[in-house]
Amino acid sequence: MLTTFPRLMRDHATQRPDAPALREKDFGIWQTLSWSQLAVLVRELAGGLAHAGLQRGQHLIVVGENRPRLYATMLAAQSLGAIPVPLYQDAVAGEFVFPIVNAGVAFAVVEDQEQVDKLLEIRPQCPALAHIWFDDPRGLRHCDEPGVASLDALVAAGRHFNAAHPAHVDTEVQRSRPEDVAAMFFTSGTTGHPKGVVHTHASLIDRARAGARFDKLTEREEVLAYLPLAWIGQNVFSYAQWLTCGYVVNCPESSATVGIDLKEVGPTYYFAPPRVFEALLTSVMIRMEDASAPKRWLFRRCMALARRVGPAGMDGQRLGLPDRLAYGLGNLLVYGPLRNTLGLSRVRVAYTAGEAIGPDLFTFYRSIGINLKQLYGSTETAVFVCLQPDHQARADTVGVPIDGVELKVGADGEVLVRSAGLLKGYYRNEAATAEVLSPDGWYRTGDAGFLDAQGHLKIIDRAKDVGRLVGGANDGAMFAPKYVENKLKFFPYIKEAVAFGDRREKVCAFINIDMEAVGHWAERRNLPYAGYTDLAQKPEVVELVRDCVEQVNADLAADATLAGSQVTRFLVLHKELDADDGELTRTRKVRRGFIGDRYQVLVDALYGGRASQYIETAVKFEDGRSGMVSADLRIADAKTFAAVRSAA
C-alpha cells in the first residue's frame, strides 16, 4: 500500500496507541515514548515549525546523536511536506557549510550546545540559516543569540499554533504523496563536495518493506540506534523500517555507554559495520589473555569446536550426536555467556555492511550462534539491494538480489542495479545524476563484481579503483587496493590500511595500528611506550605488522588474478588517520587520493627504496586546537610469494 512516513506513524498510534515506539536512556533510566505520545509530540513540533515558517519543499537540517525528539522532528518536518536533512554530528563546523548553502537551509534542529556552537560559528557563511532549536538545554539556558531557542519553546509554540489552526497539520499530512521527497542524505564525499541524495517516501518505504519481508521482521523486534542519523543505513534500520514494522527503537544515553546499553536492551535485530564487530572481538580476546590458565584452556577448546561445527549448524546442516552434545555443553559454558557479554544474546538477525568483513571474524560470530549476515547497498539504492538468506551466509559474498531488485554486471565488470528504491536524483546536480542513472532506470553502482554460480553477488573493489601494475615481473597484473586493504584490516592489530600500486611496478602500503590491541600486546611483553607515535615506530611493532602483511601476501599468492597485488614494502604511520584531518570520510572510508597527496613524501620514500623518512604533519585535536606530529618513520620490506598456478 502506498503511504508516507507520517501516515505510518499515525497508523501505529491509532492501532497500537500504548505500545512503545521509542526508548531513551536518561540518567541511567530508560524512558519510554508510546506511539500515541509520539503522535502528539510530532503534531506539536509540526505546528511549531509551521508557525516559524517552514513550508512544503523546504529543508530542515537535523544534527545530533539518536534522540527521540530528533526522530519526532524529522516526522514533523515530513508532516508539513518539508525535507529533513540529517548531518553527521561529529563533523567539524566547516563541513556543514556546503550542505546548508547547497540546500538553502533556513531551519535547524540540533541536539546540544556543541552543535549550536558549530552552527553559530558558520552562520556568517550561511545567511539563510535563521532558526536553530536545541534539544538539550545544558549550557544554553542563557543563550540570547537571535533565532536560537529550545525544542521546548518550539513545542509550546506548536500547541498555540494548533489551537488557532486545528486543521493545518492534518491537512498537510493528507496533501503529501508517496512520490514526494522524504529526505536528503549527503554522501560522504571521498572526492570533491558531497552530493545530496534525494529519496522519496516511496523509495525508502519500498526498500524498508522488502528488507522486512526478507527477514520476517515484526513489531516485536528491539533495535539499538547508535550509529549516525546522517548515515542512510541507520535511517533505514531505525527510521524507515521502524515506521514500516512498528518495532521499538532504543536510543543509548551516550556514545560512551553503547556497550552497556547494548547488554541492557538485548536487541533482536542488530546492524553494525565490521569495525564494530572487530572492536567487540578485540575486547573479548584482550580479556581472555588476562584470564586464568584453566579459563583460557576451556575457551580455546570450546572455540576450536565452535569453528568446526558452529557455522554448519547455523547453515542448517545436521550435526552428529557427539558434536551436538559437545556444542550444547560449549553453549552452556562459553558461547551463551559470551553472547550475553557482547549484548547479542537475543539477536535473531544481525547484519554487517559498508566494508568487507574478514572470514575469521565472520566465522567467529556465526560459530557462537549469532546469525550474522552481510548485505549490499548504498545511499543511492536505499540500502537493500542484496541480502544473505538464513543458512546461506558466506564471508566472500554479499547475498542475493531481493524482492524488487534487478541486477546485472556490465561489460566492464561494473554492477548495475534497477529497483523502486533508487534515488530520485542528486540535488541540484543534474550532471552527476546523469552519470549514475541511465535513461532506462539502471543505477551505476561504481562497484566491480560478479554473480557466482549460486546467484550470490561478489564485490571485488570500487570499479574506478581497480588498476593495473606497470613494469617489472607483474606487468599488467590487476591491482585491487580495497581488497588488499580489507585483508590487512582483518588482523586485530591493524586498524586501517592504504594501498598504492596503480601504474607502478609494485604495491606498497601505509598501516595504522589498533592502539588498544597493540598497546595491550606491548604491555604483556613489558614494552614501554609514550603514546601512539612512539608505539607505532617500535621495531617490535613493525615486526608484528610485517608478519600480518606477509600472511596477507601468502593468501594473495593463492589467487592467480590478484597475486601481483602482494605488498612489497610498508610503513606504520605516525598518526591515526582521522576524518577531522580530511583523511577519512565521516563513515570512515579512506580518502586514498587525499592521503596520497598529503603524504607524497612517504609514498616517494616507499618506492624510492629508502629505509626511513622523517615527516611533520599538522593535526587537529579533539578540543579544536591545532598542532604538529613528527616522526622518523621506519620503512620495511615484506616477503612476497610466487603465485600458485591452478592445475590445467
Could you name the key traits of this structure?
21 helices; alpha/beta; 28 strands; globular; 39% helix; Rossmann fold; 648 residues; 5-stranded mixed beta sheet; GMP Synthetase, Chain A, domain 3; 3 domains; single chain
Describe the protein in words.
With 648 residues, this protein is of the alpha/beta class. It has three domains: 5-271, 3-Layer(aba) Sandwich (Rossmann fold), CATH 3.40.50.12780; 274-462, ANL, N-terminal domain (Rossmann fold); 467-637, ANL, C-terminal domain (GMP Synthetase, Chain A, domain 3), CATH 3.30.300. 39% of the residues lie in helices and 22% in strands. The chain is built from 21 helices and 28 strands. Strands 4-3-5-6-7 form a five-stranded parallel β-sheet, sandwiched between helices. It has a five-stranded mixed β-sheet with strand order 12-13-14-15-16. The protein has a five-stranded mixed β-sheet with strand order 24-25-26-28-27, sandwiched between helices. Helix 8 (201-215) crosses helix 9 (232-245). The radius of gyration is 26 Å and the shape is globular. The chain starts with a helix and ends in an 11-residue tail after the last strand. The mean pLDDT is 92.
Q: Report mean pLDDT, rounded to a whole number.
A: 92
Based on the structure given, which CATH architecture of the largest domain is correct? 3-Layer(aba) Sandwich
In CATH terms, the superfamily of the largest domain is ANL, N-terminal domain
The 3D shape can be described as: globular
Q: Give the uncertain stretches in residue-range form.
A: none
* Secondary-structure content class: alpha/beta
Could you name the CATH topology of the largest domain? Rossmann fold
Radius of gyration based on Cα positions: 26 Å
Count of individual beta strands: 28
Q: What fraction of the residues are assigned to beta strands by DSSP? A: 15-25%
Instruction: Summarize the biggest pleated sheet.
Output: 5 strands, parallel
Span between termini: 55 Å
**Widest beta sheet: strand line-up:** 4-3-5-6-7
The number of distinct helices, counting runs of at least 4 residues, comes to 21
